[in-house]
Design a protein that fits this description.
Helix 2 packs across helix 3, helix 3 packs across helix 4 and helix 4 runs parallel beside helix 5. A hairpin with a 4-residue loop joins strand 1 and strand 2. The protein is an alpha/beta fold and 219 residues long. The chain has 7 helices and 9 strands. The radius of gyration is 18 Å and the shape is globular.
Length: 219
């Protein structure tokens, strides 16, 4: 379970205080994947980072009783001067997993050929996205965190393979996807929420969430 209890988070932009969450309380239950709709600039990434423990709330409590992943696209644990191979083997050891298995899995899914053995600093943005997503799927979590869905800079074949694996993971795991596009959520989420004025409005279905989200967009 992942729970936010009266959590507040805001930033000073230099001219005003931007509120991301204002005493928000909600819960992500195992087996009930959640999609969060929010326009760009409203704090989607900050919300995901707080779920992962990468950012702390100003007030309130965040409880994690499940294994929560790092966000898709997060490269904070990857050292650019080392190769993809060296990075995935190191991270596998951190999670007490078999480095040979994690390396083989990531090498197969990334499909970046000889670049896998070259420094990550030489990678394109698409290659970095593939490496991050491959690591996310190689490590077993109870809750997977995804900011904006599949990496947009990767090719169709990678998205097909990664999407199939993610759907297989979700048979025994939960996903939280935060996006500004409702279509991104349709493939994985049963329930949805709308991030609006510092509050997370929870709905039983994506259709209900879309109604509020699209109404706000028109207004």
């Amino acid at each position: 379970m992942l729970e936010f209890d009266t959590v507040s988070k805001s930033f000073w932009t230099g001219t005003q205080r931007k509120v991301i969450l204002d005493r928000a309380s909600f819960r992500v239950e195992p087996g009930n994947s959640l999609g969060v709709l929010a326009p760009n600039g409203t704090g989607k990434t900050t919300l995901i980072n707080m779920m992962a423990g990468l950012e702390k709330p100003d007030e309130g409590t965040i409880r994690r009783t499940s294994r929560v992943s790092f966000p898709l696209g997060f490269m904070g644990g990857v050292v650019s001067k080392y190769s993809g191979r060296e990075n995935v083997r190191f991270i596998a050891r951190l999670y007490d997993l078999d480095p040979d298995y994690v390396e083989a899995f990531c090498r197969w899914l990334c499909a970046i050929d000889e670049y896998f053995d070259q420094p990550v600093a030489t990678y394109s943005s698409g290659m970095r996205a593939r490496l991050s997503f491959s690591l996310l799927l190689a490590l077993e979590f109870d809750i997977y965190l995804i900011d904006e869905g599949m990496p947009s800079s990767t090719d169709v074949e990678f998205n097909r393979k990664a999407g199939t694996i993610l759907q297989d993971r979700l048979k025994n795991a939960t996903v939280v996807i935060v996006s500004h596009q409702p279509t991104t959520l349709e493939r994985f989420c049963r329930s949805a929420a709308v991030l609006r004025n510092g509050q997370l409005y929870m709905f039983d279905s994506l259709e209900e969430a879309k109604e509020l989200y699209e109404y706000d967009a028109q207004g």
